[in-house]
Sequence to fold (511 residues):
Amino acid sequence: MSTSGQGRKQYPDGTVAVDGLGLDVPDAKTMILAGPSGCGKTTTLRMINRLVEPAKGRTILNGRDVQQQHPGPAAPGHRLRDPGDRVVPAPHGRGQHRDGPASAQAQEENPMSSMPATGGIRPFRAEIPEGAIADLRRRLAATRWPDKETVADQSQGAQLDKLQALVRYWGTGYDWRKAEARLNALPQFITQIDGLDIHFIHVRSRHEDALPLIVTHGWPGSVLELLKVIEPLTDPAAHGGTAQDAFHLVIPSLPGYGFSARPQVPGWGPDRIARPWDTLMKRLGYTRYVAQGGDWGAVVTVAMGRQAPAGLLGIHVNLPAAPPPDVEAALAGAGPVPEMTEQERAAFDALGAYRKSGYPGYFVALTARPQAVGYGLTDSPAGLAAFFLWHPGFAQWTYGEDPDEPKTKDEVLDDITLYWLTNTAASSGRLYWESARSTAAAAGHPPPEVSLPVAFTVFPDDVYRAPETWTRRAYPNLIYFHQAAKGGHFAAWEQPELFSAEMRAAFKSLR
Fold:
């Protein structure tokens, strides 16, 4: 068949890439042409021409089958097996939106909305019912507030005046549909692995020889925190790099997070998640790839490095491993303070101060009783926001008052709202519990070393800034170590250009 001169390549999973963007199609005869818009720095999808399938006489134009004699099946939405305790999108074309024309226009602009499911990989579109958003606003307006904190700082938690102002804006001025539109402008999919539906974004670079990269978020983050690095990583020439630096990008939602399904049985710790991540990459046709993660994403990525599946070339993390055993013992008061360099002592003192600061309390709570914490977070959006802001990654956040703050008020609310609308406050928190149980079960049996190449970047505003000496003790095959000039715990969110430059440098030797 003709593709009007556009570059075309078919992958083992049935994905057909045209203009460098991978789209999941049922066979080699029916496809939708789409590619990067190339307009400024905004990644969108656009329709290119039309394609006729000779065997059935079907024409797919602007994302829709315009021939009625052979109508295709309605593309499936994301439905869960458990009854309505979670807001989920309806099948494509039937989701509730603010108005009919807006929904129809979104479907027309995004070809994912009308593509049939195939090969175990199903197109996905976020379509939160309007009633769920109205319910959120009602709950925000009805928040029952505690009395004001008795101190002038955040040592007791989110300050009342600041949180009240944020919640007022959340309920009256914030628009979730903007975040939803950003997600729906990207190729999103659902695939079942190990009995669980996994949501992921898959953006192929227009450079065919780009290196496949799977990037994993953490808590209280989501795929939203990684959207700003898609353009720099897939189109590096427009962002200070070269075509040889390009990546094909896969960004999955962790199990129990966002639009991925929630595990219904225990056992979904980092080691188990790592295996489906390799399955996902192989299912997409990637036989050689690299992996990156921060926060829980780093733990999952390190687990992948230990498992060393065929095809995984190396990993990059921006959350360091635990301090060396002798340093950890000294921090816990169970051993003498070892001799240290000046840099090591600075890291030691910073870790000690952090552990006494009260910020690790969220970690303790989720590790001990995520279900108990989850009841309140699931019932009160204001409580959910306050709990998220306990995380040290938000310690210096100004609630949107600083115009130079890289995490804007709307972006932070996008992330919190995603957790609320998908009802994943409790399920996401269980990852802490799962990890603690697997660690306890392995007590006395240290995990195997990561034999694969490891790259590491230290961001100066993060809590734990591991020295190179400690990092090399954790990862003997360290091929790259760099201290970035700026950035914190949510590095990809806060400094996307710098983060992307780190990925190019870190994986350069593995291409």
